[in-house]
Amino acid sequence: MGSCCVFVLQLFTVVCLLVQCFDAKVHADLNATLVVDASLASGRPIPDTLFGLFFEEINHAGAGGLWAELVSNRGFEAGGPNTPSNIDPWLIIGNETDINVETDRTSIFERNKVALRLEVLCDNTCPADGVGVYNPGFWGMNIEQGKKYKVVFYARSTGPLNLVVSFTGPNGVGNLASTVITGSASDFSNWTKVETVLEAKATSRNSRLQLTTTAKGVIWLDQVSAMPVDTYKGHGFRNDLFQMLVDMKPSFIRFPGGCFVEGESLRNAFRWKASVGPWEERPGHFGDVWKYWTDDGLGYFEFLQLSEDLGALPIWVFNNGVSHTDEVDTSAVLPFVREALDGLEFARGDPTSKWGSLRAAMGHPEPFNLKYVAVGNEDCGKKNYRGNYLRFYSAIRQAYPDIKIISNCDASSTPLDHPADLYDYHIYTGADDMFSRSSTFNRVTRSGPKAFVSEYAVTGKDAGQGSLLAALAEAGFLIGLEKNSDIIDMASYAPLFVNANDRRWNPDAIVFNSFQLYGTPSYWMQLFFAESNGATLLSSSLQTNSSKTLIASAITWQNSVDKKSYLRIKAVNYGASAVNLKISISGLDPNSLQSSGSSKSVLTSANVMDENSFSQPKKIVPIQSLLQNVGKDMNAILPPHSFTLLDLLKESNKLMMPESDSSIRSSI
Questions:
Q1: β-bridge partners, 193
Q2: 3-state secondary structure 618-668
Q3: Residue 299 φ then ψ, to 5°
Q4: Which of 129, 389, 406, 604 has a Cα-to-Cα distance from 17 of 20 to 30 A?
């Protein structure tokens, strides 16, 4: 025992010496100076809308993700309208001598006629646990002990019904929760809605929903749903994923795509009218760009509700008659224009209007705060886009003059040849190029429509599945956007979500499966900008000989909870050497900055290609520490490959009086 203590003491001494050497080396690297003018006169308001979210139905972000529905292909429509059809991922319990399962077109719902027909052939010879079907959900259902789940389905039968509804573990082993639905032949001679709530008595991360019987006869099933009772405000959003969005404090959310809006072909493009009304009546559709079926439980109404729940402005992207492979001629685009206008009436119309009344019937009589629309996605340059766009622009401007209209065409280098309130700018590139683009908008004209950087991300080998390197390059880019927020109104990362079982795109901000989740470094990087919306950008200048690897900015912001004001400095050190950043702040009262309540947060890791994972979800997260010696002159060490945030508590907003030359410089 004693020898172990001696060894530990010796090891501790060696480590301390190494740390001291490293610390000395850190302090001896590069130098830079950030000069900040914090006077009221130097500040410029940052738009309230600058940083938000872009949600696209990609990577099973909604279906099997944020939308908490547990059943995949709940209406048996994913195999197409013709029967017999594929019912994947539903599978049969029992063999061919006991049960015959097929689809037919006898559903009560006109827009989705496919139903599932189960002919039970066995009677007294049925297996003890019965025969039927089960649904594994989206790569396994997460059923948790003590939690309740609402199961809804429609059924009819040729005789008395005795149907066991249960959640079981993998391979049907272990009963997590169950109930028996019974009724006479007359009770179920016609389609009947069944609702039940199951409370789990055990937990399984890879469970399934089973519907089984031991009674001979024919049973039809349709629109089988299972949802956790506990979703955000009962609105159907998975709580843990929703909270990740809340923490980002988004000012807006752009939805539902992306390429999801366009479709590979128009026949498979997202159409809002097919996604509203009772969920049982929604036909769903095959998203042919990202190659999977969605029941569209997360529809237009739910996206608007999501925006409201987040306190974010909705930005609706609609199809303008253009897909990846086909286009509607401008002379024939008016039905698409009418569809967009109807969608605006649904969101904003009086509850007595045609489409406003449907919104009211869905539980939201008050209009949604829809003030932005985007005409298409990445369609600029396609043959009919300009002509189609002008038709939409004219009709929307006439009917809703307050709505801001976003063009797909990038005006950062070439002026638009059509009217618009904002223009769309997308950038997916390597890390070095992304970081260098921090100055892109420095050279853009200050007149004309403002930019909406609605999709940005580092991709390719630099990104991996979400690397620190990618996050640092993006942070530098965002600081550039923040500094140019006089001509940039909005910016959002893409994509937002990925179900780890269906990676259609890398990287993404939030990774999840049925029960786990984590933020990539790019997610945590964005939280450093969460207070920028509506803040004040301060005039600052960076004096450095490492301009290609260092960028910094300064803002003032107010905490909405305690109303305290802060001066925030953000600095990205994209280089491999530590930087001693000297900070000089003018324009404040000498006693404005307070050590108590000031803090530092640093996002970094040992290797720039490090990533978070389910096993190490917080390998790369901001590390916060308190600051003790805050003053108008201070030093901050920026570690190699790091993103550093300093929040300096301000006691007052008074302008600084003339100061003496005997100021004291403190170190952080």
A1: 154
A2: CCCCCEEEECCCCCCEEEEEECCCEEEEEEEEECCCCCCCCCCCCCCCEEC
A3: -110, -165
A4: 604
Query: Closest by alpha carbon to 629, among 594, 660, 602?
Result: 594
Rounded to whole angstroms, what are the CA distances from 494 to 199, 425, 459? 37, 12, 10
For residue 660, count other CB atoms closer than 10 A to its CB: 6
Tally of CB atoms within 10 A around 278: 10
Query: HSE (CB half, 13 Å, CA atoms) of 663?
Result: 17
Q: Average pLDDT across each block of 10 residues of the chain; the chain has 668 residues. List them in order.
A: 40 38 49 95 96 98 98 97 95 97 97 97 93 98 98 98 97 95 97 98 98 97 98 98 98 98 97 97 96 97 98 98 98 98 98 98 98 98 97 98 98 96 98 97 95 98 98 98 98 98 97 98 98 98 88 96 95 97 93 92 98 98 94 95 97 46 38
Report how far residue 431's alpha carbon sits from residue 572's, in angstroms, rounded to the nearest whole number.
13
Q: What is each CA distance from 408 to 40, 389, 394, 403, in whole angstroms?
A: 37, 9, 16, 16
CA distance 447 to 260: 32
Kindly report the pTM of this predicted structure.
0.93
H-helix or E-strand spanning residue 427: strand 422-429
- Rounded CA separation 180/176 (Å): 14
CA distance 337 to 475: 38
Tokens for 235, please give them: 């609105």
How would you classify residue 258: left for phi > 0, otherwise alpha for psi between -120 and 50, otherwise beta?
left
Q: How far apart are CA 664 and CA 668, in angstroms?
A: 13
Which residues lie below 8 Å from residue 368, measured CB to CB, with a gap of 6+? 304, 307, 308, 314, 347, 348, 359
- The length of the chain, given as a count of residues: 668
Find the DSSP H helices in 319-460: 334-348, 354-361, 385-399, 431-436
What's the chain's Rg over C-alpha atoms?
Answer: 29
For 262-311, the three-class secondary structure string (H helix, E strand, C coil) is HCCCHHHCCCHHHHCCCHHHCCCEEECCCCEEECCCCCHHHHHHHHHHHC
379, 320 contact by CB (below 8 A): yes
- In angstroms, what CA-CA distances link 420 with 59, 257, 335, 337? 31, 20, 22, 17
Tokens (6 digits) for 452: 């909406």
Give phi and psi for 269, each to the nearest 5.
-70, 155
The angle formed by the CA atoms of residues 443, 448 and 451, to the nearest 5 degrees, is: 65
**At how many degrees (to 10) do helices 300-310 and 334-348 cross?**
40
Q: What is the Cα–Cα distance from 187 to 192, expressed in whole angstroms? A: 8
**Which residues, in sequence order, are CB contacts of 658 under 8 Å at separation 6+?**
none
Q: What SS3 string covers 153-211?
A: EEEEECCCEEEEEEEECHHHCCEEEEEEEEECCCCCCCCEEEEEEEECCCCEEEEEEEE
φ/ψ of 198, rounded to 5, equals -110, 135
Model pLDDT, residue 547 = 74
- Region of 59 on the Ramachandran plot (φ > 0 left; ψ -120 to 50 alpha; else beta): left
CA distance 434 to 455: 13
CB 38 within 8 A of CB 567: yes
Phi and psi based region of residue 205 (left: phi greater than 0; alpha: psi -120 to 50; beta: remaining): alpha
